[in-house]
Write a structure and sequence with these properties.
1038 residues; alpha+beta; SH3 type barrels; five-stranded antiparallel sheet; 14% strand; globular
Length: 1038
Amino acid sequence: MEVGDWVKVESDKKKIKHVQERTVTWDEGYYDAAGKVGQVQTTYPFNDVVRVSIGHKGYPLNISLVTKATAQDVHEAFGSGDVANPAVARGDMVKIGVSVDKLKRMQDGHGGFVDQMEEATGTIGSVSYIDRDGDVYVRFNVRRLCFNPDVLSRVTPVEDTFYVGDIVLVESDQDRFKLLQTEEHGGLNARMLLTCGKTGRLHSIVSQKRIRVKVQGKVWVFNPDLLTRMGNPGLGTGDWQSATICAPGQHDWSRGRCLLCAKCGECTHYGRLCPARGKPGRHPGSLCGCGNGDAGCDDCGYCRRCAGELQLRERDDDEQDDVMQKLLQLGGDIGGLFTGPLHDAFMEWLGKKGDKSDTPGHGRGDTPAPPREEMVPVLKKMGQAIELTRKSKSLDSLDALKNALENDCYAPFLTYKSIADRRLMADTLANVDGAQIFMDYLQLLSTTVSDGSNGDTIASSLQCIEVLQKLVIECTQMSFEFCRAVGRCGLLQMFVQDLVALQKDAQNQSTSPMIQPLLAIVANCARTPDNQECFTRCGAAEALKPYLRHKDANIRFITLSCLAFIVENQNMHLIRVNVDGAEQIVSLLKDALDHPNHDATVGTYSYPAFELATMLGGLVRNDENKQVFVTNGVVDLLIRLIEIGTDREKEAAIVCIQKLSYSDHISTIIKKETRAEQVLRAMKHDRGLSSVIRDIAAAALQILREGPPRVVEDPSGGPGRISTISYSDLTVNNVVGKGAFGQVCKGYHKKWMVDVAVKKLNSSSREQSIRRSKALMEEANFMYRARNANRFVVGLYGVCIEDTFTAMIMEYMANGSVGDLISRVKHVPWALKWRILQETILGMNFLHSLDPQIIHRDLKVQNVLLDEDFHAKISDFGLAEYKPLTSIGDEKGNLCGTITHIAPEHFKNPYMKAGEKFDVYRYIFQFCKLKFVYFGSSLGSIPGKKPYREIGIGGVIRERVMKGERPDKRQIPTEGPNELSFFVHLMENCWDQDAQERPTFRTLGEQVQVVTQKTNAQVAQAIQVVLKEQGDELHNIL
């Protein structure tokens, strides 16, 4: 029994129960499989179990309960094969046969209308496949699009020119190839010479001078003069069978209406058992007529059998499931792994998997092939080598052990190239406690080396350490499970400590061979989210920081790739990339895309396109990196990866574009200068892709168009409704601040994959809870009204209201408040202070420009927050009316906010409603804080002292303010930049006793802009000064 076989299940239910109860934990659902026909998904030879897919459900069945199906069985199970199909075949040449207006109407219910369809009008495309609903997917130059079959017309062009879908022969003369393949035609890559004399299939015509052709599994851009048209399958010319279009693992598999294989001529789904077999008029590429299933490869037309890729499912989303399945296959061959309770537990797990639905996808190369029989002895030898290592408590058998590890554990990773085989080997080592055993033995070897034993022993020990490091590199590169094991057992921490020990001699060339393997292991483990806590606990970011300055470019690159995954927001400066670094990474991604295996090399290490895209996703968390990468053309490369990559590569590229789009400025560039929006929109509607990819594309498209997730209208709730966020979607971490009503915590939204701030209410009496909940919703409503000012106002994502948890979910501001900044940093450079003041003005002007206006009422340094690049945004507005006054005694009325910041007219009339001049008066106290508190005067002001130096109680403050007294001007520095005198004059205008004489924020903005235009160029340097001064004291604060 092999994967891909069609089988029929025993119909006797009593027999099924009798046999199954001795095989797996019994489930009544097994009765549903009785007498049914299905396809073998996976085999478990050690347990005499096969998993059979029946109606999108997987049933683990004892092999004695299934027999190979006959054509009659398939006919009875799935019908006679009389399914009506559109009158087109794979490869047919078609064009849109209706007007654009009619096309828009007819596309309703057939995938909808997208802009590229209008672009495709008048051009000729090639049919890729037909989906389950009978809709036709056609590849035009713009991309593959889904159509209502009634809008398409078959065409037979007469002119002898290139068309999408053509079979073409690449020039065989390499010298002529090099001469003609110039930059004008896409440029020459040395690996392109491998295509000389090969036959491929035309994907798209970029221009009259550039044509994209898939040859040997890779899409290349060619000079048309290097191509000879051999025909087109849609015209009955051109030989699909002799073409070298695809390569193992590089097919473009589809699901939908079954077709006839271009090689064997049988159904792409049922093969020779197809119920429609023998019907007239069937030819390679034509519709089979039997119904829906596996539609084969869109490019070469082969079925999975002819391509040698019979895998039936995508990589499991749940890594643990994948590991368990592989462990199950190993049975009892490794140390009695499946005995007693452990065996029972696995059998129970297997039984529970019976009702899990498997949704096949549309990726190429993502699906790991099932383990082959030849892997069984390999895994057995691995287990024996691990057991030998476990028992070794001394170095008596060092050479024998080294040979066993090298020959039985490491060598197979070099012998077997299949990703599935390599992942299986690494998972196996993880689950037989390999990481812990390796750590114990490495410690023994390290002790021997450091103790200075005899020379031969030290040499052998160093060789064994090298073998173990190479083995761990392979395992961590292939298996998330092994990475998790390295983090759990302490091996990761040991490697980080080794890197710390090597820091002193890091620049010594002789230490590079010791540093590189350690960094490679750490970088591999960094891609596993479960290890984040381990990295934080062992101080990995600080340990790696010195290696960013290493003279070896390879070491710098590996370090950066590791930090891209592990640094937290307060250390974003560690992954800031300069222009040269960005160019190198972009160049590597381009090389990877040009390579048939989608990988590029740095030194001795290979970086797949998937890892480079994932690394970019980590690096662009730093906003400054977004600009430098976009400038270097990374978006076009990511789009290319989306279009030609595997499902994993598509996902990594889409997520990277999504993270780039978190910046309004960058998203504007992406929308104007790239095809990202069109590509994502088409992917969102491409039912040939897996639902996971479509969902990710839809989320990225929304963020590109509308910015990061903020407030979502609830159509059923009328205007002004704020989105609710489920607590299950949140991870609430450490407290970063406190307010009058509760705590502010750093959090993480699992679905959006972004850090968030969680402002939650403290538990209190019922009366207080009602009052505080009302206050929170009031603030949320104000933030909702200001949602379009995300550049100036802290963004609101939504609210979480559950039985025991009420919170507002907001944008996370990595550098805390302005108040936090001036308490952490003694000397904030003037340029940064001017920008903070200007951005506060712009934010307040926006709030005041709304209709109706938003009056903040409690503007102060604690309520102006700073993002990771020290841009200022306003928070906590509209809530002050609910806050008690500080030191105001029993004063009542409409007074609100901090007592020292209340304008004189409101002391005179406590019931006066606050207006925009009230906020202007309060604004100037932010100026006082930024200028006078930490930058003392000739009188020697004390750091941290309040603007009112001699005032301590509310009554005295009220009395003096009403008399016209203000904070002590003697604290103003006598020396400073030229702009200081301007801001002092601005300060005096803002705290004028007469509210009507105070300027508006619009006036302030116009005045301040003239000054800051001269100092903005110094802001970047000012931020570096701040980062250097705050050093290790920067904490996770909001």
